[in-house]
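anyone else get weird line breaks when pasting these?? whatever heres mine. first is seq + tokens for prot A
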Amino acid sequence: MNTNVIKSLLLLLFLQACDKVELLPITSQEIMKIVEMKKDNKAVLLNVWALWCLPCVEEFPMIVEFGKVYDDLEVIFISADFEEQFNEVSSFLKRNGVNSTSYIKNQKDDPFILGIDSKWTGSLPFTIVYAKSSGKVIDSWEGIAPESKFKSAIDAALEI
């Protein structure tokens, strides 16, 4: 095979690999371990959302932007969609410029919800913000929230 053809094929494979969003199945226990590992390094904004949830889809681009604006903030998205919707979720993430690993719930609802936050009723979207240095919950809420609520929680998480 011609060297130029091989180089072209390798470049094409590389570009295709870069174009994919990493979407992994996850349980609440696994996500809480990830949050714990971020302590002392970054504040964490965890957002649970779904494609069928219009408020989730509406606030999604704003949350993506927070991840780009705040250097010391780790934004973690968890889709509550069914695993059969893996491709649709992946496409949505890609269209919205998500370039970090995201997750799709791989656990029954009740254990997942309780494993994330015992005060969470299961309503979507659900957002929880963890402090950078302590890893403690700064704020959490169900439903869509204004940009000011997000900023206030993120700023507090970065200070504590």
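and prot B, same format (seq, then tokens)
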Amino acid sequence: MSRGLGVILVLCAAAGSVCELGEPVARAQSAPRPASRQLLPSDLRVDDAKVTAQRKAALAWNMKILVGAYDRVGHRDPKWDEAARRGLTLTARLWAHDPDRPGDAPDQAWYALRTAITRGCDDPLVLYLNAEYSEADLPRLEAAHLVYAALLGLAPEPHHPHLVSRAMVESARTLSAASVGLSKEEWAPRWNSLIVIINRAFDLLPNVLADREMPAGQLVDHVNAMFDPWGRSGNDRQKMFPHVEAAFEKARDPKDPLLQVMRADALASSAWDVRGSGFARDVKPEAWPIFKQRLGQAEAEAAKALAMGANEYAIVRVMNRVALGLHGDADELDQWFRLGKRLAPGDRRPYWFRLYALEPRWLGTSVYEMFDFARRMQDEANWNLRLPLLMAEGHEDLTMVLADADKATYFANPLVCGDVLGTYPLFLQKYPDSGWERGAYIKWLARCGKWSDVKRELQLIPADRLRVGAFGGQSAYDDIRKRAASVP
């Protein structure tokens, strides 16, 4: 049996008609493109020299608001300065999508900031970023409380308004995530708290927009993130966009094409809010017209932005969602993917979206295409962007529709284990101190029943490098340790 067919059989046995059986088939011809199409990949022109200059400027700006701010107004002390600056520098490289950053930059940043704190650092920016990095290692409500407390410490400090606004958005997001499943009575006070935090973030938006040096893509992402708690709470994020327009008119020329990009981005996100990310059969009939209308509007706004002079990677991100939801053209999505790589060579999101779009529930004819792409990323071996790990992430995402018992069956399949387990040792050879990736590797070893290897790898994680979030939380980590302890 071929590797691909074995994986398909496991998934289909667990979830019924999630995917198609059989050997790979030729892709059907793409449907003719509608005459009303307003933006195609061929409309964008990439100036590689300009992309390089923008990338350098983005890193310089993030270094200024993080490391530069720490040197200017931070709570400094020789005992922790080196660790704090290292954590802030790695954060700047991550936020700027520096293509040369180390593959374990998130884990290194977390460790450096925690090291500074254990040495006595009480700088509000360091404390806030530590809370953001530590979220996955904590129970959701505890994480929300930690981020909110860090926000209260950061807000009065003379930092760039983007940092304070970002902290507010993160506080709202973590509180929203901690509120899933609450009753209406329990949710009401949480929602009131969310509204207060998000409104304060919107109050800061004119000040954020006033900085013309802020990277455009980072600004678009920030505005989109401001809507996320609103949208995920079942509210229409489109109703909030007039607040962005009002703030934009206070700080910038309303004819600036960046406003069109933001509008296109908000329309695309709100369209997917309405539809949801599940199977088409589960979408409410009344959602389809709104979904298609908003994606069409998003394409129109993106085309206007391009005509006005914008040529941002954010346009590609908009069109990825438009092409996936409205046009269903796999070849076009591949062209947007290639454009995304050129416009944002250090951004991992084009690769993730390409993998996602190849899932059988979207444009893939079977999981063959999805995992063929993941194997190409393994062969490409771009460890800085962690591309070989897309294989493991793809398997995780593919099983989101399954019950826990069916997930366990899927993950334990030898073909799935063969796909995943060979990648982590190569990563850990390059980054042996990465507590997060070693934890993820141990989680997969446990899924695959390799308990002697689990026991060995657990002994390689120093106490100060442990990331329980990589295991799925404290209880999952404790269960794995307990079972590994019984191995001779």
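btw re prot B: DSSP finds 23 helices and no strands in the chain. The radius of gyration is 23 Å.
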